[in-house]
Amino acid sequence: MTFDRRIFNFAAGPATLPEEVLKQAAAEMLNWQGLGASVMEVSHRGKEFMALYEEVLQDLRTLMEIPDSYEILMLQGGGLGQNAAIPMNLMPLAKNGPKADFLVTGVWSEKSYKEAEKYGVAHLAASSAAEKFNTIPARSTWQLSDDAAYVHYCANETIGGVEFPDVPDVNGKLLVADISSNILSREIDITKCGVWFGGAQKNIGPSGVTIVIVRKDLMGHSMKITPSIWDWSKQAATDSMLNTPPTFSIYMAGLGFKWLLKQGGVKAIEKRNLEKADLLYNFLDQSSLYENRVTKEYRSRMNVTFFLKNENLNAQFLEQSNAAGLVALRGHKAAGGMRASIYNAMPLEGVKALVEFMRDFERRA
Prior knowledge:
L-glutamate binds at residue 45. By secondary structure, the chain is of the alpha/beta class. Helix content is 34%, strand content 16%. The protein is built from 9 helices and 14 strands.
């Protein structure tokens, strides 16, 4: 199916980007900053790119209110790469040998937990697997260790559509947060976690760059087996350029940050995100055809999962929604059903169009 217009793209990632950002990138593609070349063709160590890089970091610091006590790394390898880097950098801080606690609330935190088992003791402090990852376990059931180096959690689970409403209370223990899918979507207190990490391909720009925000005193403790590219202290010492960085992805992230600043920053975009999520969830809650199965207080603002009560209509729903320019609504194979990812760049008009289509489809079903 082809379109002669922009669609409303509800993909979970790589996700929709602001049209304004795409137009600027297109305009600068052949001649960036009057250099007669694209940003992809200039040296990453040249003064022009280094100036861009520093501006990107500063804009992110402004947007997230990141204090100087935290380092910002722009790395490759995605969240899965950091699932290895984090235990290799932090597990040595444990009292009695490498160990970390994990709150497993979905597929992505489960992947983090299983990867960490390669480097030390990965202790399952809490899990909602028995509830099919439709909720977050009650705080009273968490079994946090006394000797773990840190506690790891995923702030927003894209597959199940579960999101922590706030940074969890772990009794003052070092906390590590995977914010791949809700970074810059809501205000957070950076000082509540020692490490924040996430890929750019949902709320920032195209895939290729992974942002790691790490408290500076947590660097320099890596295991001897840690590859240089995963050693945060070595990357920090080289401006994240131990190897050639993903220059185009960093450039695009910078455009995304400028766009977000122009919208009024994180506070303004959070208000918009709440409006979008409320619109869609309110419709689902009154529907006789669709249902959301996530505990209400843990519903994701970014990834709204839903199911058709008559699953024989799934194929028809997807075919007709695609034809209407509402694409990528099929749920992840691990969860089934449908999923509408409504990240920062998804306009309110897109969610309104989706709700109107769903309402019409329900009338005709």
